[in-house]
Amino acid sequence: MKRLNILFVLLGLFVPLTAWAEVARIDLPQSLSKEAAVEYALAHNRAYRAAFEDVSVAGEKVSQARADFFPKLDGSYAFTRLSNQPTVSLPELNFYKLPFSIQTINRWQVDLVQPLFTGFGLESQYKASKLGLKISQYQLEEARLNLMRDVQIAYLQTLLGQRLVEVARDNVASLEVQKKNAEANYQQGVTARNDILKADVALSEAVQRERSTVKQLIVLRSNLNQLMDLDLQEKVELAGIDERTYQVPDLHQLYSAAEEKRPEYLAIKASIQQAEYSKAAARSRYYPRISAFAQYYREGEDFTADKNPFANSENASVGLRVDWNLFEGGKTRASELEWEYRLRGIEHRRDDLLQKIRLQVEDAFEQLKVAKANIDTTRVAVQQAEENDRITTLQYKEQVAIFLEVLNAQVFLAQTRADFYQALYGYEIAKAELERAIGGPID
After folding, report:
1. Checking DSSP bridges between strand 289-300 and strand 314-323, what pairing results, if any?
2. Does residue 405 surpass a pLDDT of 60?
């Protein structure tokens, strides 16, 4: 928990000022690494920056709850003009009415109230607000993890898209060569014209696949730019990644790590404590509320309240006040039950969330294993497809293989290369998903 608190402090250092943000944007590396892309996104992504504001909001709520412990000082001024002079009649003097108060009243008043006992309501509300701040910090950490995962995946998918475009273009180029060979062989009378037609069909399909992969790459680049708060059409050169493997703990260790680090789980546990304090705050209305008060006032005929021929122009008082609600139609009990039901609901959601987290961890863990195995499988498949393409081309030149086999060999080669790159980058994507599932790095 201490390490997490330190992390939140460090995260606060990333809140960008406008001037600093402009400098960072100018200094965006042209050959952008995955780590640099994540760092840049953390500094500029608007949704993530908005999450910092939510933490500030929760902090101000703590300040408001803390302020309730302090005395309240209020001042007021009132002007009153009576239509008739207040008088009193004396039995002995029926014909005479004695004035006893001023007719024009200017009253200045200052009241000071200090709560002394509120049935533990203020303490409970303050503790609940502090937990609200902690929950907002967990939500900030959740936003950070989500952004890091999304940027890493977008970065890797963009690299994969570039590779697939290269494969598609190489396939188109190879089929264009095969079409020219078919045309040359037809001109020489070696092959039939339908070989040219087959080449045209295969080339047409390859061109369509190339267009589709180029379109997909454009969208992937825009998605990455959006996460980094760049112009969608801005061209950013990506540095690429090195092929590597990772040592992954066993599944039960990953479960434990996720339970300790996942901010969503930590937030819902804090929500349970918050609901308990809110329930205590609701119960506080069963108790009397005691407060100390002090009052000073001035009352007179003139604006400054200096002239008052009938009473003191100023006075002061201090005292204690006890307020105790005896009946309000069961409202307090209903409020207490409301938080009791909320508490039970949060506990059920906590247990459900833990199961979902474990399922996410297991899914990411198994996907990482599959992706790792696929790298070796597809690497061998590429070698086999390259050898098959070479042999089939030679056999066709020797008139041992038909032209359709040559085209099929080209398609197989393009597909296995695409599968290899998908496995290679899929492994890195699965690693990013696993790190998000456990709430932190795996190595």
Report:
1. antiparallel
2. yes
The domain segmentation of the chain, as residue ranges, is: 2-70+119-287+329-438, 72-117+289-323
Query: How far apart, in whole angstroms, are the C-alpha atoms of residue 50 and residue 249?
Result: 35
Which CA distances in Å does 373 have to 188, 246, 294, 386, 412?
48, 13, 78, 20, 20
The Cα 229–Cα 211 span in angstroms is: 27
| 201 residue type, one letter | V
Residues 324 and 289: beta-carbon distance below 8 Å: yes
What's the average model confidence in pLDDT over 174-189? 74
Strands 31-32 and 237-238: parallel
d(CA 387, CA 144): 46
Q: What is the pLDDT of residues 327-361, one digit of tens each?
A: 989 988 999 999 999 999 999 999 999 999 999 99
Beta strands 314-323 and 31-32, pairing class: unpaired
Question: Tell me: the pLDDT tens digits for 39-50?
Answer: 999 999 999 999
Q: Which two tokens stand for residue 63?
A: 């300040």
Contact call for residues 389 and 412 (beta carbons, < 8 A): yes
Cα 121 to the chain's mean position, in Å?
32
Cα angle 420, 425, 431 (rounded to 5 degrees) comes to: 130
Task: Using the structure block, give the residue that is written with the tokens 């969608």.
Answer: 232
Apex CA 432: angle with CA 133 and CA 380, to 5°? 175
**CB of 396 closer than 8 Å to CB of 403:** yes
- Of 213, 215, 210, 212, residue with least CA distance to 175: 210
Q: What is the DSSP letter of 286?
A: G
CA torsion 80-83-84-85 (nearest 10°) is 20
Q: Using an 8 Å Cβ cutoff, are 92 and 145 in contact?
A: no
Q: What is the pTM of this model?
A: 0.82
For residue 194, what are its two tokens? 């339908």
Instruction: Grade residue 19 by pLDDT with cuts at 50, 70 and 90.
Output: very low
Torsional sign, CA 346, 347, 353, 357: positive
CATH annotation of 2-70+119-287+329-438: 1.20.1600.10
Residues sharing a CB contact under 8 Å with residue 186, sequence separation 6 or more, in sequence order: 192, 193, 195, 196
Q: Residues near 131 by Cβ (< 8 Å), separated by ≥ 6? A: 270, 271, 273, 274, 277
- Whole-angstrom distance, CA of residue 151 vs CA of residue 149: 6
Which residue type sits at 235? K
321-341 per-residue burial string, b: 16 or more CB within 10 A, e: under 16: eeeeeeeeeeebeebbeebee
Beta-strand runs (E) in 151-243:
237-238
